[in-house]
Amino acid sequence: MYQKESLEESLKYFFGYDSFRPGQRKIIEEALANRDLLIIMPTGGGKSLCFQLPALLKPGLGVVVSPLISLMQDQVDTLRDNGIGATFLNSSLKTEEVRSRELEIIEGKIKLLYVAPERLLAAKFLPFLDLIAEKVGISAFAIDEAHCVSEWGHDFRPEYRQLKQLRQRYPKIPMLGLTATATSRVREDIIQQLGLKNPGVHLASYNRPNLYYEVQDKDSRTYNQLLKNIRAQKGSGIVYCLSRRQVEETASQLQEDGIAALPYHAGMNDEERKNNQTRFIRDDVQIIVATVAFGMGINKLDVRWVIHYDLPKNLESYYQESGRAGRDGETSNCILFFSPADQKKIEFLIAQKTNPQERRIAYQQLRQVIEYAEGTECRRTIQFSYFGERFPGNCNNCDNCRNPKPVEDWTIEAQKFLSCVARCGERFGMMHIIEVLRASKKKRILDYKHHLLSTYGIGLDKTADEWKMLARSLLHRGLLDETNDGYRVLKLNESSWEILHKQRTVKIAVSRKVTDDLISDYNPKAAEAEMLFESLRILRKQLADAHSVAPYVIFSDSSLKSMAQVRPKSLEDFAKISGVTNHKLKQYGTQFVIEIRRFCQENNSENSPGLPSTYMATLELHKQGLSVEEIAKERSLTTRTIIKHLSELIEVEQPVDLDSLVIPVRQEIIMQAMEKVGDKSLKTIREHLGENYSYEEIQLVRAKWQRESF
């Protein structure tokens, strides 16, 4: 067993990274202490590392329960390319392959085993599991996609319910449940169904600052709108459609228009579906057009955009599907096309459900999606409220925040609405309250004698849509609560009473502004860096094809961009790039260094990473131990300019001693703030932190954050 003095050294040795992402270190420490854990961490947040690193540091075999063959293959390929002993057992293997892998496990050559729940609990496999426990030892069971265990999850799988047998059969072996999304009800269900004992529960923020969210109204020529969007995007992308027929038609149309696209849906045969998925993962085609059957087990890190051609069925699915973009931390776009006609399609599908409770919940989830699509507030505020996370808004990375709508004071209207909720006994939903406010004469209103309430008819000055807009705003911002049982009954909370008692004002965006502008790729690299990045991508693809793996298994886009910026010309310098392990250095280092040298020679590039000489002059004075003020005085520049130099030097991994500029404890607090409010706006971060933190130190720490957001 390999053991280093610190977790950071182990992280660098096995995975090539210098520091943990927020929350990872504490989770790993608890896993090493053999504690049961429930980990809710968004896609791209580094969830896998939370069970992989402890398995490598503890004696015995780590068993990972994974639902999809493609996911197992992908993660095992990535681990093995890092020189880590990992394997999987599933139905895709021949008998002799299974026996060979089982022998490797018993001989202690494997540290991580991926297996499907059906195989794990099969009568023939359990004795082998007992043998592993006896001969090698089992360090932990990691249940990936743990939301599948809950009937309240968006992808319930009955076979996951049987996993509680693991706790009964191996009561002393720790168990970890991991998933990207889970409401409070699903979290409780996971703990109960897996039999977790006093688990450490870790809820990471759902915010992924690198994703741009946008909703576009479908126009009359929908396909042309889609084509225009695709041609404006860079890199690999996914187009999600509601039906198999539309998947086939859209993929065919894109091919006719010269776009490298392939279809993917459950109606295709296994071989064709697998082939199309592999070609997409290995960058042989740019686009996959798919139903929601595609993506759950895909570990492709460099998807640059996701377009929902049709309305998703619920917000949890939308968060998961759109979250397949930008898993490497690079800027990526998530676009949703919206048309009221899509609502009718989904309502028809819901109507086919025979269970009344399932139908009721499905209708509620659809209404929440409609509210997201029609919402005028920060998209993140609306999304995260579904999962119970309060987001302050102003993310500066969604269409509503980049094109803010006029804001008006609607405190009086909010008081009217909340007062009506109270007078109706907090027993009704949004539409009932609006009907009372607008003096409806429906039988339901009269039967409850709500036409006799003092709030009856006091809202005739606003349309029903305007009242809906207000109600949604109150719900998304946590100023009003709603039951999540399919009935959507409104409930007052502490903030509601503050509004009623005139202790809080309510301002909302009151108009919907449609824009055809697409997000551009901000923070553009220098032209030379872009050219080198493309050269390195070509080399990566050649190596990936030679090894029969996906390109991102070799190196992520983030690592390539660092190489293009820093331009290491020796193996020693190459080893310092984030994502370069000792194993990868030996496998690929020489080829990449030769390519970088060739590029620099052909383009007459200097040894510096494409930075102006003024930046390098600042760096030299910093390395001599001068303070920011002393450097500014020495160079006759403002301190603001020096901070800018140092920030950009940090981003391209130059040797800036950040600890000498911002003490570590303040760095950690600033990073925690960025985890909550994002890293795009210095003003937003400072408003969250307060006046005790300066813009200068936030800017420096943000540079480190952005560099490490791989």
Automatic annotation (TrEMBL):
It comes from the Bacteria. Residues 526-606 form the HRDC domain. It catalyses: Couples ATP hydrolysis with the unwinding of duplex DNA by translocating in the 3'-5' direction. Residues 28-200 form the Helicase ATP-binding domain. The keyword Glycosyltransferase does not apply. It is an enzyme of class 5 (isomerase). Its EC number is 5.6.2.4. One of its GO terms (cellular component) is cytoplasm. Its cofactor is Mg(2+); Zn(2+). Keywords: ATP-binding, DNA damage, DNA recombination, DNA repair, DNA-binding, Helicase, Hydrolase, Isomerase, Metal-binding, Nucleotide-binding, Zinc. It holds the Pfam family HTH_40. GO terms for biological process: DNA recombination; DNA repair; DNA replication; SOS response. One of its GO terms (molecular function) is hydrolase activity. SMART domains: DEXDc (SM00487), HELICc (SM00490), HRDC (SM00341), RQC (SM00956). Residues 222-367 form the Helicase C-terminal domain. Belongs to the helicase family. RecQ subfamily. This is DNA helicase RecQ. It comes from Gomphosphaeria aponina SAG 52.96 = DSM 107014. The lineage of its organism: Bacteria, Bacillati, Cyanobacteriota, Cyanophyceae, Oscillatoriophycideae. The gene is recQ.
